[in-house]
Amino acid sequence: MESVQGLADWLAALPPLGIYGVLFAVSYLENIVPPIWGDTLIVLCGWLVGIGTIAFVPTVAIATLGGSLGFMTLYAVGHRLDEAIADPTRLRWIPRGPLAAAERWLKRWGMGVVVANRFLAGGRSVVSLLAGASRLPVLRTTIWATLSALLWCALLVAAGSWVGTRWDIVLNALGTYGKVITALVGGIVLIGAVRWVRGRRGRRAAPQETEKTPP
After folding, report:
1. I need a labelling partner for 56 at 20 to 30 A (CA). Which of 113, 156, 193, 215 fits?
2. Which structural domain, as residue segments, surrounds residue 78?
3. PANTHER family in the record, alphabetically (predicted)?
4. What is the pTM of this model?
5. pLDDT tens, position by position, 88-104
6. What's the total number of domains in the chain?
7. pLDDT in tens, 138-182
8. What long-range pairs does 123-129 form, CB within 8 A, spacing at least 24?
């Protein structure tokens, strides 16, 4: 928590415009560079809202804008990636089977996954990339991704404002939440991978059994 305290002290020393600028940059970059402490910074900004340094509405709006733009940036990357994967001579190191299965899953659940993406700790970047690769409608994706960011950011800012200097309570809760969500997502991915491997083996075995069957 000492590093978080240092970040809080540094933020508190900035003028309001500086705080908003840092908030926007980090909210945008955390989608592209996930290890960035995006949620931590938003909680700390909530604390600054609580003590009157900055205002609630612009804080939520700026964090939402940064998060939404970051999501759509990776959406565009995923769109281009899908074009490259469609060419069998490019990006051969990417396994086509699991990626195609993930895209089918996202197309099935569509905007529900996009709305939930901000609440999926550790999976936000993956969702945005797959949304682009699956070619989900741009306008609808933008709207629902923005709504997801708005709900999440408003929740964190409100929580940070409410607990005041005890923002460690919120951060500890976020840490526990992140571990649970990561475990659930990891379990789903593992199950999907096992099913894909078994299905692939079954498809390979079927022609061999047909060849062995006597006329």
Report:
1. 113
2. 2-212
3. ALKALINE PHOSPHATASE LIKE PROTEIN (PTHR42709), UNDECAPRENYL PHOSPHATE TRANSPORTER A (PTHR42709:SF6)
4. 0.73
5. 555 454 554 555 555 66
6. 1
7. 999 999 999 999 998 999 999 888 876 676 666 666 666 566 555
8. 123/181, 123/182, 123/185, 124/30, 124/31, 124/34, 124/71, 125/31, 125/32, 125/34, 125/74, 128/31, 128/70, 128/71, 128/72, 128/73, 128/74, 128/75, 128/78, 129/74, 129/75, 129/77, 129/78, 129/81
